């Protein structure tokens, strides 16, 4: 949360990924670099719609959701992401 206060991250956006995974996915998944055009978020559209990615293929699917978010993001979409994340964290229905 301190990263948000420092302006390094947003509350909503493509979820931050460790550098070694970013390097790997940029080599393996076309257009992966495009998700780096916006600040990473604590939670994102891909997380609330797809959950955990256990493979490069799954990460490619999540990338499609990240790119959709980047192209169509609005305050309303950010609020939806935050509310669904809140619901998931506190045991309400997350999807």
TrEMBL record:
Alphabetic keyword roster: Transferase
Bacterial sugar transferase domain ranges (all copies): 1-90
A Pfam family per the record: Bac_transf
GO molecular function: phosphotransferase activity, for other substituted phosphate groups
Entry keyword annotation includes Cell division: no
Family: Belongs to the bacterial sugar transferase family.
Protein name per its UniProtKB record: Sugar transferase
UniProt organism field: Candidatus Desulfolinea nitratireducens
């Amino acid at each position: 949360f301190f990263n948000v206060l420092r302006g390094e991250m947003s509350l909503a956006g493509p979820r931050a990924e460790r550098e070694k995974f970013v390097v790997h996915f940029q080599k393996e998944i076309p257009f992966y670099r495009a998700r780096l055009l916006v600040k990473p978020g604590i939670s994102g559209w891909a997380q609330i719609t797809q959950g955990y990615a256990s493979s490069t293929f799954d990460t490619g699917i999540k990338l499609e959701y990240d790119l959709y978010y980047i192209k169509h993001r609005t305050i309303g979409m950010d609020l939806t992401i935050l509310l669904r994340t809140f619901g998931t964290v506190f045991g309400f229905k997350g999807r």
